[in-house]
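User: Can you model how magnesium ion sits in this protein?
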Amino acid sequence: MRPHQDYLEEERLGKALDVRLLRRLLGYVRPYWGLFLVAFLLAAGITLVELSLPYITKTAIDYVLIPPWIVVRAESPPTSDAIKLDEGRFLVRAQELPRSIRESLEEEGKVEGRYFLIAPEDPGAEVVARHPDLFRTISAGYLVAETDLEGLSAGERLTLQAPAVRTLLYLVLGLLALLLVRFLLSYGQVYLLQYAGQRIMFDMRRTIFRHVLHLPMGFLDRQPVGRLVTRATNDVAAINEMYTQVVVYLVQDALMMAGVLAIMFRLNARLALLLLAFGPPLLVLTFWFRRHARDAYREARRKLARLNAYLAESISGMPIIQLFRQELRSFRAFQEINRGYYRAQMRSVIVYGIFGPTISVMRNLALALLIWYGGRGVLSGVFTLGALVAFTSYVRMLFQPLSDLSDKYNILQSAMAASERIFKLLDEKEEPTGSRPLPTLRGEIEFKDVWFAYHDEDWVLKGISFHIAPGERVALVGPTGSGKSTIVNLLFGFYRPQRGKILVDGHDISELDLAQLRRKLAVVPQDAFLFSGNVEENIRLWQEKLSLDGVRRAAEAAGVHGVVKRLPEGYSTDVRERGGRLSVGERQLLSIARAVAADPKLIVLDEATANVDSHTEAQVQEALERLMAGRTALAIAHRLSTIRNVDRVLVLSEGRLVEEGTVEELLAKKGLFWALWQLQFASLSPAEGADS
Ligand code: ATP
Ligand code: MG
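Assistant: Here's the modeled complex, given as structure tokens:
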């Protein structure tokens, strides 16, 4: 069936990352490029802050928490600010000593442990006074070995190290300041991205709807409504996610990884190289993930499209399914499709389930390696404790973007699929329209050898020619499916004939400005469509000049006034979605009132009285008489009783005009019209038949 196939169209999916699509998507970013630029700059700022955070911890450990001074034995001062203690012994700040020198000194056993140096003006001097035997007085202050402090109370030790405590406080304040900066930068970034994203979505929805408004009926016919709705809502949202959650963050992640690697190499090149060994397996894993995630995603989308199609079809056909007692069969078919979708989703779950934890295992392996290798480095003194702690943070930061990658990839994939569908819709050609204006309409219609098919060569109209003079009233009759409504569709320019010409007032309608043409015609269509809103709005239909009085007069003329008055809120009654609270006949009457209100020169009635009872029909008939007076009218009718007062009848059969003339002429001819007439009036009550 048709709708089914249409849903299946969604199965055609392109590449996960398509440069052509990206370039087009970029077009929507252009107006907001400034915002994105700022977001990128903020990303760089955030990266810098993130990278500096572990460095603060490192500084706190290496410069504050570990006693800063060491005593080394050497011939000459090992650093420029070394303080000479005795002959051959120097007090040195551990951090000042180049690593290579410290390593060789330690290997030779020339380092004597860690010391604190308390300046005479420090608060610690008072503790020194209380324990004079523990400290050695030198020119720079009082010296004490780390190991000699064990006898002191916690309070005394804190006093002794007041400068270190103060430095620690500064570091913590610095840390808080950085966190605040980070918060502000992130806030700004999220705000900018979301703002730009919302603007882009706003623009895209506008573009899509404006485009749909101008699409030819021939295209819209083939579209399930749900699909077009999805284009303008879900698909746009999927693209938005890409802008707000992927684009800038991918760059930020790349910056972060580059920064982390640079710092790692600076801190310890060998350790950094060792960690780089994780690169190749990670790359392989990522490629594996990419391929399987894409396949799983496509499979899932295919199955989802099938599920959607089946659900949509079943729900709209539910009365039929229930009437024919097909519930069980329908349920079984649904189960099959449902299971397929479930399996496809599970496949995707497994792929993601493998990727995330594997990355996490790798990260923990890297940490283990770090603790082993780095810990040994700390023990052997080639590596500071602070650097080791900082390294663990950096390893986490290095792996984080990788674990986030799967989510980003998913978003990117959906966005690509969505943009492909959106662009396909936007690439549909708009309804062609001429530009010749039509200031006043006389109401003359001419069809000249018109051939038309909705599809290929399935001719629905086969060489139709007729002429309707201004002010003439013509009825179009013929069996179901003979092409009556199609003629109306062509007259309104909803479709273009493949061959032949349609002239209005002598102008080919393909050259006319369609909008102007349509404004001057009014149609009472076969299936009356009401918009959500109240009765008054539905009759007025965007004609702002029309007063409520005018609306009422139109309703009276159409014989619908009585019906409206019976509604709970009269003209203000909400008709609900598609006129759900009105009967089919009532809807049709409203639709006639609408045509009356429009006051057109040329009016087309497609089965205007098909769904009303005989009494109402008589009423409507009268209304139509008044409506048609002085206008050109083309009335399509199944019930031949409604066409007694027309000037001429066109009889259509299988897309050809087979008879033409007044009712009397055609009856006398005893052709198709006569046969139809006989059929209808034979089935009516004798009374009704008699008065014809
Ligand atoms: P009825 O009296 O039942 O309203 P009609 O004379 O108005 O019939 P049309 O609606 O013009 O008939 O349809 C003529 C033929 O064109 C039918 O065979 C129908 O199946 C086909 N047709 C109508 N609309 C479409 C469409 N949108 N796409 C494809 N085929 C269509
Ligand atoms: Mg029809």
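A couple of observations from the model: Residues 484-485, 526, 606 surround magnesium ion (ligand 2) (CB under 6 Å). The longest strand covers residues 459-468.
User: Helpful, thanks.
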